[in-house]
Amino acid sequence: MTATATRPTAPPTSRPPRAPRVISFSQRLSRWDLKVSPYLYISPFFIMFAIVGLFPIAFTAVISFMDWDLVRNSGEFIGFDQYVWILGQAHFWTALRNTFSIFLLSSVPQLIAAVFIAAMLDRNIRAKTFWRMGVLVPFVMAPVAVALIFSNMFGDNHGLVNNVITNLGMEPIPWHKDPFWSHIAIATMVNFRWTGYNTLILLAAMQAIPRDYYEAATVDGAGPFRQFFSITLPSLKPTLIFVIITATIGGLQIFDEPRMYDQFGRGGAGQQWLTITLYLYDIGWGQWNFGRAAALAWILFLIILLIGLINLLVTRRLVRDEGRR
Amino acid sequence: MTALDTRSVTTAGGSGGSAPGSPRTRTRTRHIRGVRAGFWVYAGLGVVLIASLFPFYWSFLIGSGDSSTINDPDMSWIPGGNFLANATTVVNDPAVNFWPALWNSIYSSALIAASVVVTSTLAGWAFSKLRFPGSKPLLVFVVATMAVPMQLGVVPLYILFADLGWTGHIGAIIIPSITSAFGVFWMTQYLRQSVPDELIEAARVDGASMIRTFWTIGVVAARPAAAMLGLFTFVTAWNNFFWPFIVLDRSNPTLPVALSLLQSNHFVDFSIVLAGVLLSTIPLLLLFVFAGKQLVSGIMQGAVKG
Questions:
Q1: Among A73, A205, B155, B259, which residue has the least CB neighbours within 10 Å?
Q2: B298: distance to nearest CA of chain A, Å?
């Protein structure tokens, strides 16, 4: 693909189609300028992408078929052995389960909350900018920082959440020991940071809904709830689908939050919150096995593609449904 | 504008949508919906606001106490007086390297943001306003690359930078981020809507060169979008952890990497960890105070698309 980007160093001498007499040097220069400039402008992106994007992807594929030797800095081809090894690991399947569990626990409540908060912001309120900035504040905090604060609040013994729970007379929750509760805690970190961001995206989509729809609905006697479910929600579909796709791509890669959930960063003593990327890091830079890490990276990519494909199919269906509204 | 944004979502995977621009839809959003919002809307938003701010307050509360604060069942909700002392411990911890980390974060994020803005504006201008063979498939290719996770490249990138002797060097985190597919796509969408084609044709007829046209029309029109993209890229780069954590070492970290070191050193004393968390967040909070408005409108205008 990058070949196309550099191709047009095309011969500036390409002869003009006719009437060469009136073509002056500056005109020829101008024509050349017209042809070459677009490629020149996009070339920085494509050249860089070739180096730091395309090359690593291809090389990851190559390494994933190798037994990589760190000392010699080269490897031996061993076919699909690394993939077979990964798929044979119980840790991999635990990590896969955890990743999906955290992803669902973070994306579903987050999107529901974002839709409702956006609906509130879409009302005729005072100090709009203030409220919008308010919901976005968590976004500027690094995931690492968010994770440190929340892992403190979700402490097993003296964490804020358990203190509140015991004060209410209930049993403290094992936030670290139990896989499900640890997923809840990690999902809460993700939700804290991303709900406001998605709220603003949905708010932008809501504001694009023609207000006459609502006026007509009011005339027809539809209340605010009916209006929300019959006008707002259906109109948000394309945006929601987009938000879901980006949340999927990001959510399946989760690393920062589980890494910082305790001081060891290995996903818990019993892999309660080991995620795929955490596992990849451990294989690559804990066990220093680059062949296996590369294979796992490709498996992760294929999973993301698969989920993306499912998303796309569902999207097509939904958008077609919506088409003739 | 926003109307176009949402529509372009559906075309994002396809041809990039030639959205026949009708900037007039924008006036519709100026409509006032119904009567002024009542008490419950403000109450709901108030709860959201408190939830957004509480963790900041909590880290200040713990970070201004001492190592026993967290274990105290009758903990006070009034911050203690130890924040400066704890912050000093963080800053002076030789294992954390706070000042180099702060400087690394500032300058790597600024460089990344600047370079993403320049390359994205150039490419966005070409994709949106210049006609050239292959432009559509190339743009689709750019969009497709957004689905590629960082994880897919880290192993070879690490090998590459280890070969160059750049592990532990801040350049190793700048180079892989100096362009952005998201940025290119965003600029393309923005410029497509905001610059009328006639303007460019007029400039060409008047004999302006391509670069002159870009400079006098494209750059001027792109300025607001460039500011938002720069801001967004800066925040993203600043918060990035996975790759810096892999390739940088303890002696020369960025702030998030330094925070992870802080945790492994002081996990028994959360007052120091959370003081460090707050300390590392202050620069971005300051940025948010001055530029948060732009970040909000940037996300609302642009992020819908890509």
A1: A73
A2: 10
- B134: nearest CB among A4, A263, A300: A4
Q: How far is B222 from chain A (nearest CA, A)?
A: 15
Q: Please check whether residue A239 is in contact with residue A202, taking contact to mean a CB–CB distance below 8 angstroms.
A: yes
Contacting residues for B65 by C-beta, under 8 A, at least 6 apart? B75, B79, B80, B82, B271
Q: Tell me: pLDDT of A3 over 50.
A: no
Query: pLDDT tens-digit profile of A278-312?
Result: 999 999 999 999 999 999 999 999 999 998 888 87
Query: Are B48 and A281 within 8 A, CB to CB?
Result: no
pLDDT digits (tens, 9 = 90+) for B226-235: 999 999 999 9
Asked whether the beta carbons of A204 and B304 are under 8 A apart, the reply is yes
Q: Which residue has the tokens 């704890």?
A: B86
> For the packed helices B255-266 and B270-298, what is the interaxial angle rounded to 10 degrees?
160
CATH 1.10.3720.10 in chain A, residues? 82-324
Q: Give me the sign of the Cα torsion angle A204, A209, A211, A214.
A: negative
Facing residue for B259 by CB, picked from A144, A207, A312:
A144
Contact yes or no for A273/A96 (Cβ under 8 A) = no
What are the angstrom distances between the C-alpha of B175 and each of A71, B100, B143, B243? Answer: 25, 19, 20, 12
Q: Is B48 on the interface with A (CB under 8 A)?
A: yes
Question: Looking at this protein, which amino acid is placed at residue A30?
Answer: S
Q: Tell me the residue type at B297.
A: S
Asked if ipTM goes beyond 0.90, one says no
Q: Rounded to 5 degrees, what are φ and ψ at B185?
A: -65, -40
Task: Please report the domains of chain B, with CATH numbers, ordered by start residue.
Answer: 1-35 (no CATH), 96-303 (1.10.3720.10)
Place of tokens 């995206």: A201
Q: Residues of B with CB below 8 A from A5's CB?
A: 138
